[in-house]
Amino acid sequence: EKGGFDTFMRKEIHEQPAAVADTLRGRIDESGQIVLDEVRMSDQDFRDIDKVFIIACGTSYHAGLVTKYAIEHWTRIPCEVELASEFRYRDPVLDRSTLVVAISQSGETMDTLMAVRHAKDQKARVLSISNTVGSTIPRESDAVLYTRAGIEVAVASTKAFLTQLAACYLVGLHLAQVRGIKYADEVSAVLDELVAAPGKIAKVIEDLEPVRQMARDCASAQRVLFIGRHVGYPVALEGALKLKELAYLHAEGFAAGELKHGPISLIEEGTPVIAIVPSPRGRSLLHDKIISNIQEVKARGAKVIAVCEEGDRITKAHADLVITTPASPTLLAPLLTAVPLQEFAAELATALGRDIDQPRNLAKSVTVE
Ligand code: M6R
């Protein structure tokens, strides 16, 4: 049942190209229009939206954070992202023209469900993104877009996360298409790249051996830090969450710009720092900034692992290990850069003797508060 892999998590990491391809299948027509008929929201419904709120927990929240960058850039509609457990206990400003997107792999997370009810009480329109057909959150939502990751057994979310990103990109691009398109060329180019993503994810998966080796080398670390900017920031948060939950090791993700505001004091000789480097194409300013951040942590003794786009000028002179991912538009890069971090966490946790499919104290579906 593990398909030749030692654990479900490793099997699920390898299933990611197919899971993303399945999630896109049939949702982009031959003329390059996104077809989301199944969600039963008309184009006019999408045009009426003037604000988006994304609510989720854990890894699904990280997918939401990435989506904010994409939706605001492609559509210019304001988009907020909030942990469901916070959203449900406050008074968010919502109305009929607010689209609330609830992301939940299981469709049963109690806080997310309660947040959905809270949003519906205020007449917002709720679209859920879920991997579980017929689960409670989709049933209580106005509309649903299913990810097609297949059953995810390992507690740590991997393929569900990548398919959530794919589904969220579809929603963002669909919103852009139905609303008169300011970035028409960019949207169609991004769609082509989205369709190409599964092949690129497969390429990343083929090249994971150096990550595994580095993960074993880091197994005696006291803590591991992850830094990123722009969409690399939620990827850093996700990398840290994976490591915490699997290895029981202190791990934190930071916006790289925050380093000097506190976290840099955590760095000691040998502290592993994983930097998610934005593509030097397009966002060269951000790229320069992260190189400075890498130099700052390196000067304080950090062991730096840089995850960057192939062809990047970052070399062994900057980082102890350079992991490259295929070129991709910045907003889609998380589909690729998250993968080495999944493997890093799985391998480091395995080196520490952890049960990576069933970490202590955790359940696959959090149906209690
Ligand atoms: O089923 P959901 O997507 O609502 O679950 C949310 C979180 O409990 C989940 O993503 C959790 O953080 C994962 N175990 C992380 O790998």
What's the number of extended β-strand segments?
Answer: 10
Q: What about the largest sheet?
A: 5 strands, parallel
**What's the gyration radius in Å?**
20 Å
**Structural class, judged by helices and strands?**
alpha/beta
EC number: 2.6.1.16
Keywords: Aminotransferase, Cytoplasm, Glutamine amidotransferase, Repeat, Transferase
Catalytic activity: D-fructose 6-phosphate + L-glutamine = D-glucosamine 6-phosphate + L-glutamate
Subunit structure: Homodimer.
Structure description:
The protein has 369 residues and is an alpha/beta fold. 44% of the residues lie in helices and 15% in strands. It has a five-stranded parallel β-sheet, with helices on both faces. The protein starts with 7 loop residues before the first helix and ends in an 18-residue tail after the last helix. The structure holds 5-amino-5-deoxy-1-O-phosphono-D-mannitol. The site of 5-amino-5-deoxy-1-O-phosphono-D-mannitol (M6R) has 16 residues, from helix 4 and helix 11. This is Glutamine--fructose-6-phosphate aminotransferase [isomerizing]. Its EC number is 2.6.1.16.
